[in-house]
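Lab notebook: predicted structure, single chain.

Context: the supervisor wants predicted structures on file for every construct in the current expression panel, including those that have not yet been purified. This is the next one on the list. No modifications to the sequence; it matches the entry in the shared construct table.
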Amino acid sequence: MIARRPVTKALVVLLADATGKPCGNGSLPRTSTGPVPPPYTVLHLVGWDVQGAPMSDLSEDASALYQAVCVGETTDQVEWLADRVLAAVLERDPVTGRWRYPLVLPAGVVCRGRLLDVDTGTDPVPGDGIVNDMIRFRLDLTSRTTQL
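Prediction complete. Output recorded below exactly as produced.
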């Protein structure tokens, strides 16, 4: 079976590395001194569907629905971060066709699809001085060992 925890951890690392900004797993990103200032991303796993292998095929499949909330102090800051998150998840190398930002998964697990589900656009929170953008995307995973 494909476990959700390693996939989520790998995605948190991918988003932090590709955007150059912190990413929290279900909560505000923190350092030893407390929460980090904006901009940052908070990642939530909002859906997980696993299909066991049929008798004729030993591969397991899973589909994960993630929500990335980009948080900043201005609309411009959040739009910049949201564009970086979208690129991190969806952008491909024009020469190789592979995703520009690899998702480092456990041995034997391959991400065969990355799809945008919805991007709500920026949503300022009145009076808080905080702006956010919620992006949902789906990862389709398989335990097939051949690279797709």
